[in-house]
UniProtKB/TrEMBL annotation:
It comes from Flavobacterium sufflavum. The keyword NADP does not apply. InterPro entries: Alkaline_phosphatase_core_sf, Sulfatase, Sulfatase_CS, Sulfatase_N. It comes from the Bacteria. PANTHER family: ARYLSULFATASE FAMILY MEMBER (PTHR42693), BLL2667 PROTEIN (PTHR42693:SF43). GO terms for molecular function: hydrolase activity; metal ion binding. Keywords: Calcium, Hydrolase, Metal-binding, Signal. Residues 1-30 form the signal peptide. Residues 618-638 have a biased composition (Polar residues). This is Arylsulfatase. Gene3D superfamilies: 3.30.1120.10, Alkaline Phosphatase, subunit A. The keyword rRNA-binding does not apply.
Length: 638
């Protein structure tokens, strides 16, 4: 193209006219450029032209419907599907006609697990090392809580490949400042690939009066239990879609708030467990261990870890304590069984509508280990961060309010720590403990009648929450896209489990995995694991909520341990002194993974509770602990 020589001697009006002419000429030229994706012919007349209509996007022939089910705050030893004493007949049926994965891992807390699940990438890589809450995020690439557009979700991928996409329940990865009806909505579920969403955006909510959202607006709840409402919506979305486009595959992300606190459920469910837990948490652990051995989900020679020093032996409790604590567990068990029932409604609808045989279902029973956030005596109306209240005072309050456990009045109902250890059998520790299998190992069920030959099989391959996305894509015959909406996509970090569906001895493809939650950290490689616990307000739950001044972080004094999980699956034999070279190798690997996945700077609870923050909705120098007290709903941990 001939270059224009600009005449600097022209007067200002003339310069403006010439510049305008140049811009118009360039725009006209740009508009006349042929669309590289257009395959027709554009002539001067219709007779000289050839029309082109792109083929509508369709899913691969025979592609399955996909249902992802993610529960909240459920330990490995809770559900009967994996040997627990809480009845979950829907999960039992799916597992008995599908596969039980015994070596599946989450991140040890909610928001990072959900971010990793939805994207197939590590939580730090997608900016959710902590949370999307203002009070629990930080202005660093791995910590700001904002999933970038180049880390597309499973919903975005499937929608671009001919699926309809629905989500119901808990989302948990929308930044607080975006979560109003003014948006912006690009980080709401509908902005991340879901055609429809019905549920709540935060970490927890009142199950009878939820902070409820439908699509892009808050709506008024109807008074029914939230899990009942989301189940109706899920079935309704599928019915409407199938009526309009019979046979078109759908993706349903079903993530109830259950069984995160507040534990709320109708009495008919909790009363079914009256007296069932009177023997206490020590007996529960022994019975769960025996059941797990019978099912084959743990080694036949497995031994329980010692009771945690924080937990009182059941037989040493007072009669009042036993009565109170048993009621907490009756409610929790009823809540889990009720949740299983509601999921069964979805499964039964798919069966009755002849869609189940070609439906791929993943059930992750928990987004982390059992919750330790109920303190040693349980909570009913107390907030996790309640100031200046002792366990003794809370115990007396709970005894007086025992009738409120599980009801709409129990806005923070959570069971005592002893039940967290029991429902985490056969592992030690619990939620938030990223250094421990008790925080990160959860049951996984894979059900796919069309694609799984062995019914009721056990799979022991090491796997991680990031693996579900690539497994889903491989089963559906869909490649991870290079671009989504013209944005080049980052790599998928998860590894597909496809080969293991019909080969119990298939190689574990997930070789390396880091873990980090507020100071607690670990690194896994080929069966070996190095781990370090880090002091925080929840390491000793009896000190939580006492309004103590946070201790400055000191990660250098943390003691690293070493385990060979191939021989010691529940971490009873620390090999750090025996194999110092292996420990040093893994610590170096942790540093490499931390750098690769935006994990630095390391942030722990003392940093969170003690620092001043930028609060977009208020005082820029407000103390986080004060803000948590003012906003217990969003200040709750996931």
């Amino acid at each position: 193209m001939k270059k224009f020589k600009f005449n600097s001697k022209l007067k200002t009006p003339q310069k403006g006219l010439l510049l305008t002419a140049l811009v118009v000429a360039q725009l006209s030229f740009a508009q006349n450029k042929a669309d590289v994706n257009y395959k027709g012919v554009i002539g001067k007349t219709l007779a000289e032209s050839k029309e082109y209509w792109p083929e509508p996007v369709k899913a691969p022939a025979g592609a399955p419907n996909v249902v992802w089910i993610l529960l909240d705050d459920v330990g490995f030893g809770a559900s009967s599907a994996f040997g627990g004493l809480i009845n979950t007949p829907t999960f039992d049926a799916l597992a008995n006609n599908g596969l039980r994965y015994t070596n599946f891992h989450t991140t040890a807390i909610c928001a990072p697990t959900r971010a990793a699940l939805l994207t197939g990438r590590n939580s730090g890589r997608v900016h959710v090392s902590g949370f999307s809450h203002t009070v629990l995020s930080a202005g660093f690439p791995g910590w700001d809580g904002r999933i970038p557009a180049d880390k597309g979700t499973i919903a975005e991928i499937l929608r671009e490949n001919g699926y309809n996409t629905f989500a119901v329940g808990k989302y948990g990865v929308t930044p607080d400042e975006d979560a109003t009806d003014a948006g912006p909505f690009d980080r709401w579920p509908t902005g991340k690939g879901f055609d429809h969403f019905f549920g709540f955006l935060g970490s927890q909510t009142d199950q009878y009066n939820p902070d409820l959202v439908e699509d892009q607006a808050h709506v008024k709840p109807d008074g029914r239990h939230l899990t009942d409402q989301i189940t109706d919506k899920a079935i309704g979305y599928i019915k409407t879609q199938q009526k309009a486009a019979p046979g078109k595959p759908f993706f349903l992300y079903y993530a109830p708030g259950a069984v995160h606190a507040p534990h709320q459920v109708a009495e008919k469910w909790s009363d079914a467990y009256k007296g069932k837990f009177d023997e206490g948490w020590d007996v529960y652990r022994e019975k769960a261990l025996a059941n797990q051995k019978k099912l084959g989900v743990i080694p036949a020679n497995a031994v329980l870890p010692d009771r945690n020093a924080l937990i009182t032996e059941w037989k040493k409790l007072t009669p009042d304590q036993k009565k109170l604590y048993a009621r907490f567990m009756e409610v929790y068990a009823g809540y889990l069984t009720y949740t299983d029932y509601e999921i069964g409604r979805v499964v039964n609808y798919l069966k009755e509508s002849n869609q189940l045989d070609n439906t791929l279902i993943f059930v992750a029973i928990g987004d982390n280990g059992a919750s330790k956030e109920g303190s040693q005596v349980g909570t009913i109306s107390q907030n996790l961060f309640s100031k200046g209240v002792s366990d003794e005072q809370n115990l007396q309050s709970n005894l007086e309010k025992i009738g409120e456990i599980g009801t709409a009045k129990g806005l923070n109902t959570n069971y005592p720590l002893g039940w967290a250890q029991a429902t985490n059998a056969p592992f030690k520790n619990w939620k938030q403990d990223a250094q421990s299998e008790g925080g990160t190992r959860n049951p996984l069920i894979v059900f796919y009648p069309k694609g799984i030959k062995e019914k009721g099989g056990i799979r022991n391959q090491y796997s991680h929450v990031t693996d579900i996305l690539p497994t889903t894509l491989e089963i559906a015959g869909i490649k991870a896209p290079e671009k989504i909406k013209e944005i080049k996509q980052d790599i998928i970090q998860g590894s597909s489990l496809y080969a293991s569906l019909n080969d119990a001895k298939a190689e574990s493809l997930h070789k390396v995995q880091y873990y980090y939650i507020f100071g607690n950290r670990a690194i896994y490689k080929d069966g070996w694991k190095a781990a370090a616990a880090h002091a925080n307000p929840f390491t000793s739950p009896n000190t939580a909520g006492k309004n103590q001044a946070p201790t400055p972080s000191n990660f250098d004094t943390d003691v690293w341990e070493l385990y060979n999980l191939n021989e010691d699956f529940n971490e009873r034999n620390n090999l750090a002194k025996k194999y110092p070279e292996k420990l040093a190798e893994l610590k170096k690997l942790f540093d490499e993974q931390a750098k690769e996945n935006n994990l630095y700077p390391l942030i722990d609870w003392s940093d969170v509770l003690g620092r001043k923050i930028h609060n977009p909705s208020g005082d820029k120098n407000q103390n986080i602990q004060e803000l948590i007290h003012k906003t217990p709903q969003t200040g709750s941990t996931n």
